[in-house]
Amino acid sequence: MHIQMLKSKIHRAVVTGAEVDYVGSITVDPELFELAGMVEYEKVQIADVETGSRLETYIIAGEPGKGEICLNGAAAKLVNVGDHVIIMSYADFTPEEAKTHKPRVVFVDDNNKLARFTRYEKAGRLYDLEVEK
């Protein structure tokens, strides 16, 4: 048996674009998704803080360091530029792995630049991590 749990998230990123006439996906600055432990083409869940809408799609890499967060295709109709979104990835864990797993959390500022890099501890507490240079 496996348990699906939060693996990592990028918290309250600002939507910089919404491109309806695109095949699909979410374009994300690779500096952010790599720090979160996500990979290109990974399935993610997106929650829009302003509208409450949720959707699933996959990540494609934008230009590194630009802070791009762009919803593409039909998903572009569920967000507005300037909305805050939470980008979440999940993974399957054995019950033993689940006991010690601590999800990565990447907090960003209003320009989608790293503000804080943490992991969850028990009871939802956070502890800071060092960013490898």
Automatic annotation (TrEMBL):
It catalyses: L-aspartate + H(+) = beta-alanine + CO2. The keyword Phosphoprotein does not apply. Binds 1 pyruvoyl group covalently per subunit. The modification Pyruvic acid (Ser) is found at residue 25. Pfam families: Asp_decarbox. GO terms for cellular component: cytosol. The keyword Lyase applies. Substrate binds at residues 57, 73-75. GO terms for molecular function: aspartate 1-decarboxylase activity. InterPro entries: Asp_de-COase-like_dom_sf, Asp_decarbox. Pathway: Cofactor biosynthesis; (R)-pantothenate biosynthesis; beta-alanine from L-aspartate: step 1/1. It is an enzyme of class 4 (lyase). The active site is at residues 25, 58. Keywords: Autocatalytic cleavage, Cytoplasm, Decarboxylase, Lyase, Pantothenate biosynthesis, Pyruvate, Schiff base, Zymogen. Its cofactor is pyruvate. It is found in: Cytoplasm. Its EC number is 4.1.1.11. Is synthesized initially as an inactive proenzyme, which is activated by self-cleavage at a specific serine bond to produce a beta-subunit with a hydroxyl group at its C-terminus and an alpha-subunit with a pyruvoyl group at its N-terminus. GO terms for biological process: alanine biosynthetic process; pantothenate biosynthetic process. Catalyzes the pyruvoyl-dependent decarboxylation of aspartate to produce beta-alanine. Heterooctamer of four alpha and four beta subunits. Belongs to the PanD family. This is Aspartate 1-decarboxylase. It comes from Streptococcus ruminicola. The gene is panD.
